Amino acid sequence: MKALSVIVAVFCGVFIAVGSAFAQIWTLHPGITGIAASSADGGRFIIAGAGFYASTNLGTTWMLLNSLVVHPSCLASSADGSKLVVGGHVPDTVYTSTNSGITWDQHNNSPHYGPFTQLRAMASSSDGSKLVAVLYGTCPTFTSVDSGVTWITNSTPVEYWTSVASSADGSKLAVAGYYNVYTSTNSGVTWVSNNVPVSDWGSVVSSTDGTKLMASSYGAGLYRSTDCGANWTSIGQSNLFGVIASSADCSKLVLWRYGEIFSSANSGQTWITDSVPFMVWTSVASSADGNKLVATTQSGGIYTSYSTPVPQLNLTSSTGNLTFSWLVPSTNFVLQQNFDLTPANWVTLTNTPVLNLTNLQDEVVLPPTNSSGFFRLISQ
User: Fold this and answer.
1) How far apart are CA 6 and CA 315, in angstroms?
2) Closest of 76, 16, 51, 61 to residue 373, by C-alpha
């Protein structure tokens, strides 16, 4: 693979980043169907259906992890793909795994409200401990703080909810329903109505920090919020409605409906129709950078997409140290340093990046030096 790089120059507090364009291609992998989820780096796709399957090579090969048949309605994953929660169509049933789907525990005390017992949608914090979920039917919302083992009812109105979203730390939540969108900033303890002036919401997604939200209305198209749902702006596209999958910053979006898939690389301002067959799509999942995607169909078969990542290298100063960070990419990158930009003088730093689960950023902390320098990310 050709090396890719993003350079940051450190000159008395001036930082310069270099990036490139976005592209997308879909590939069919026949045979398996179900509900899809992805780890943050896209290095692990999980399919829950007639058994649990995993792929670590963008769908080229799939491994049967467990032959348990759960007839899933929704699937949520932690950022590293180790903690998984599945809501089944079997009443009062939730399945959880803490080892990437190899073994599963069945819990018969899942969310329920009157006659409504089947989970419709679910979202997870990046560590997999906090969950928010809604049921099929007119119900309140539910949250869990123990990875789906136990659940409590939230103080949202009883409504026909269709979609949920969570920030990386699980504190900021959003739920979309037929009449409204509600948000919470305290992990579901209290909720506020966003009073969006349209209805019939089909999907809502969130950025990792919870400030950016994207929602799709079956009657009014797409709406965006940049302040945790306090205010919403229509971005048009009234002909686009369906279920959205998003990158961690809500800049790269994929929307699927009955027979088509659409994608956007600029926060929904413009969209392209993806070159996939017209069929009944059942789920789409995205890596944190939006460069690895997996989609499932009702008739069987999985489609995957990969586009070359160019992560933005960020630099902040805290407690006397320099922190370099970048959104966890779908290709392995290393941090390199150079003092004069001579091509032969780039040195790969041995510091192992640490994934910050609150924002899904890989971070390297370095002590400051008295000299100017350059830093870059380069793919391996």
Assistant:
1) 13
2) 16
